[in-house]
Amino acid sequence: MPQRNADSETPQKAPNPIDIHVGGRVRLRRMLMGISQEKLAEHLGITFQQVQKYEKGTNRISASKLWEAAQVLGVPVSFFYGEMAETGQPSPAGLAEADGDTYVSDFIGSREGLQLMKAFMAIEDPRVRRRIIDLVESLAAKSG
């Protein structure tokens, strides 16, 4: 059932899961690069509030703005669709809740999460990355 806007009786559509996923990937890449919403907005010729709406999936980012964002963020457009299932739906791990917040995005937004991701992304050897993942999974299994 559509959500209702608090200011009116007009029904409001819930964000599309794909828009939430794409927006989350914009946020992920922006944060990995240490770029503020304001700076990204400036490069895209929009307001930082619009960037917020894109990142939450409440506003759908157009193809042209997505292409511009890819240029600014130094990734191919396909990056924003990463981890999508064959059905065109986000994979369960990438599916955000209706409000756009998940434990994954909370972690990514944390100082520790950002440090960990930047350090991990700096490791070029995929075998070393795999060993780190194995180590972290082993430590998590022992502590949980």
From TrEMBL:
Gene Ontology terms, MF aspect: DNA binding
InterPro entries: Cro/C1-type_HTH, Lambda_DNA-bd_dom_sf
SMART domains: HTH_XRE (SM00530)
Sequence ranges assigned to domain HTH cro/C1-type in this UniProt record: 26-80
PROSITE patterns, per the entry: HTH_CROC1
Pfam families attached to this UniProt entry: HTH_3 (PF01381)
Name of this chain's protein: Transcriptional regulator, XRE family
Source organism (scientific name): Lutibaculum baratangense AMV1
